[in-house]
Every structure is written in C-alpha cells, then in structure tokens.
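Q: For a teaching handout, I want to show students what a protein-ligand complex looks like in token form. Below are the inputs, and the small molecule is adenosine-5'-diphosphate. Please produce the holo structure.
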Amino acid sequence: MSCETCLQRVPADQIGDRILKTIDYGDGVDYCAARGIPLGRPDMDSTQLTEVKVKFAESCSFKDDPTPPYKLKASGGKVGRAVGVEIANRSDPKLAPRDCRQCVYLMQPTEVRRRYGWGLNLCMAKGELLPTNKLKGEATRCNIGIDASSVEPEMGVPVMTHENVRLLGVYGTATEVTPVDAARSRLSALPDPRLHVSDKPVDAEDQEQGIRAWRGLKHPDFPELFETVWLPVYDPEWSGFSDKERRKIPVSGDDTHPELYADYQNLLYYIGADLTSGLSPVLVGPAGTGKTEFYRFLAWTCQLPFDRISVTNSTELADIIGKHLVTVDAVSGEAVTEWVNGRIPEAIQTPGVLCIDEPNLGPKDVMEAIRPIIDSNKQLVLDQDRGQIIMRHWHRFLGFAMNPSWDYRYQGTSDMNEADLNRMTSFAVDFPQSEVERDIIINFCNAQGYAISNERVDAIIKLTEDLRPATDPTNGTLSFSWGMRSMLKTALSTRYKTLEESVRSALADNLDPTERSQIMGYVKTIL
Ligand SMILES: Nc1ncnc2c1ncn2[C@@H]1O[C@H](COP(=O)(O)OP(=O)(O)O)[C@@H](O)[C@H]1O
Ligand SMILES: [Mg+2]
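A: Here is the structure, written as tokens, with adenosine-5'-diphosphate included.
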C-alpha cells in the first residue's frame, strides 16, 4: 500500500504541466491531486520519500480513485497545523484581507522554501500550502485571516510565527523545533518588516509600484520639530521584481540576521532622510562598526534587493560600468559588438539598496565613473556606450561606506577629492556602547543556538575596553581595529575554545609577533 501506485499521484516531473504550473515542491517531490499535498519534502532522500508515500496511503480515503481530478486544489491540502496560538474567526468583517498576501498569517514562499523546501505560500493559521494564483480566491473564502494593515496593537490579534507551525509527522521530525529555533525565540529580534502595518495610507499607485506599506520615522530627539522621513516597505512578491532580485531581499533569520541589527546611531532616520531626498550618504568609520551591515538592514527594512559592490585596487571599470563584447552572429556569421552593462547600470534601474564599499580604494577611473551617480541627478550616462542614458529608479538607494582617510591604518586609500565629498552627505559611525555590544553578542550567539554565559560576554567586553584605546588610530600602539566582527568571531568560538584560543583564532594569529604578544597580554590580565 503506497501512493506510488495510486492514480491520484502526479509524478514530480509532470507537476509543471497543465494547470499545476504554479506548484513548486522542489525536486523529486510528487503531488497528491486528491488531497492537494506534497508527498514529501525536497530535502528527503529516496528512502524517506518512499516511506512518506506508504504512511499517507495508510490513512487515505481517496485510494485508487480511478478518476484523477488532476485539479489544483486551492486549499484543503494541509501540511501542518498551528500550535500555541488561539485561532478564532474574525470578529469584524472589515479586517478581511483582499488577498492572502496582506494577511498576518501568511508565510512568504521564500521563507517556506528556506524552512521546508517547498516554494509555495503557507497559511500559518490553517497549515495549508497555497499557490500564488490562488491567494485572492482563498482570501474571499477565509473567515480567519486578518489584513496586516488594519491591525492596531489593542486589537489583541494573535501574533503567529513559523514557530507556531508544526508540520505533519510524515514530513519528518526535521522540522520540529530545533535548539536553534528555541534560542531564537528568546531574541530581542526586530519585528518582521513584512508584517509592518503602514504608517500612512498606501494608494493605488504605490501598490502598482510594489509598495506594500510606508514606515514613518521621527527625529530621535526632536520628534515634533521635523518632518517625518518616509521609507517604503516593498512587497517581496511584487511582480516587478525578477526572481534574481527577489532572492537578494534580506529575510529575517537568514545567515546575516538583519533582524538583529542594533541601530544605536539612528541611522535609519538620518541616512533614510538623505536617501529619500535623493542625496548620497557616506558612512565613515573604522572597520567593524557595521557600515556595510547598515545598508543590508535598510534593504531588509524596506524589503528591497540588496546589492553591494566592494571596490578594491583591482576593481576594473568593465566590471562595474560595462564592456563591449564581440560575438559572432549565429545567422550571418559576422562579428558583432555588443555592450554588456556592468554592475552599477545593471543595479540602478530597479528598486533596491546599492552599497558601494570603499569607493576611495579603487583606481582613479573607477571613482570617476562612479562620480556622476553621486550627483543627485537621476541618470547615468555611459560615455563608453555611445552616451547611453541609464535612468536610476527613484527607490534605488545608493550609499557609500568608507574607512576614514585620516586614519593611518587605512593608508593607501586615496583621499576622495573635495568635489566628491561635497556631493555626498557624511555620517561618522563609531563603536557602540558596551551594553549594546553585549546585546549584539548575546543575540548572535543565541541565533547560532549557543547560549553564551555572562562571564564569557563580560570577558569579551572587558577585553574590548582594554583594546579600544590601544587600537585608537591617533594615540594607540596597535595597528588593527577591534570591531564587532572580531568580537562576534571571538564570542562564537568560546563555545568550543578558551578565551585565549578564541582571540587567537579570531584575530591574533593573523598579526605580527609584537602585536600578537601585546593583545595576548591583555587577554591574560582579564582571565
Ligand atoms: N549595529 C550592529 N548590530 C548588529 N550587528 C552588527 C552591528 N554592527 C556590526 N555588526 C556585526 O559586525 C559585523 C561587521 O560589520 P560590517 O558591517 O561588516 O562592518 P564595517 O562595514 O563597518 O567594516 C557584521 O557582520 C555584523 O554581524
Ligand atoms: Mg564593510
């Protein structure tokens, strides 16, 4: 007894045909047409997939129904259930979402794929997978869903997250809560921007442009004195994003953990103000102060694709601006020259965040090519390609990050000329206070499933207090920078190593012997 021989089974390689085009279960997973469910998960091996089919067949009432419906079920295909939250029918019909994508209970396909392997939407309240083209119809039938933009804090709408979803046992225990998930639940993570309730009305034009909500930011010290900075929150499923761009949108809980970013300098407000006014900000500060990370955090907040170009002295104009390629025309056999856009013209035509890291480290011609897009004018003229004009999308936020050129540790970095700096707005970033650093360390370790002890965090903070003056560029004796990256690396390795060993592997063994013994001297004094 197994689904294998059942007439209702649509083999994996045939799912893409006919009406089932919108179903994406991943490689090798069959579809049960009668129940509308996947017969396994793509990360299962063939033995496990066989087992799933046996288990399903044992409890199936459609067995061998000879008339294959082969019809895409909009719902009814339960793959799991919600636990730990009370789900009730909607109290007020006005709260109904028009489309499941506006519902507080929807898990986006990107997230579903990351967790379970299936490239479909998941209704967390009902535990059902939903193809994108069924989201409107499903919302009309549903009496549970709640429109995210209508939720007020006092309404008591239950907050449901992936942790409330339990997959059916047949899909394997791999998806049961893991220690890492348990650790994550303790985090002071920022709320998912996909659930952000708009701070002002979203009009039809916004929606057409892909904007799902607006986030209003107030001046941190004088909220009444200044105008609100408005950042867009895009709908990651907007059809204007290509799949490639969509994959670049940072997701809560991904490897870089954008939700754990601590905005201790209110950069979202200050840099957001510049960006939405069409100015080009540059973050200036020592290595490891979170300059690059901020731009990723911005992209996450706005649910925009994140692109980063790291300029080095070997960066070539052709990579970032473009080049002519000579190819042979397949029909005529003649050589034809074709212009291929580089990374900047490629990126700036669509909404997103583009971080250009260390523009001052590149060869002169690279800086010269970047210069025109620093200007608030909204276009890039490609002299190299017969003056082709590339228009910048109004929501392609362009920001820079640099180490300060006055800092001797970054010698070799050419000063940007005054004209460049005049075109930009600058913001000096510095290391956070130790309480913030403490939170960041604890959060990152938790996210890796490591409950770091207070003593270990204390030791790293103490070491930092000793090291910072010694690494100060103007009067310190050490030539490296002890930034968040080194602290996090050290903290994470204290899971398996002593503090001494951790500092060595995070940084010290990379240094010259004099500096190494100096830093290890500091480590010894705090032990
Ligand atoms: N404010 C912050 N909140 C959370 N993590 C941070 C923050 N700043 C830095 N980090 C962590 O430190 C690492 C280094 O930051 P990064 O942005 O690469 O620094 P920079 O670009 O200034 O050299 C990041 O990967 C991130 O994990
Ligand atoms: Mg950086």
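A: Two things your students might notice: Residues 291-292, 357, 401 surround magnesium ion (ligand 2) (CB under 6 Å). Residues 454-470 form the longest helix (17 residues).
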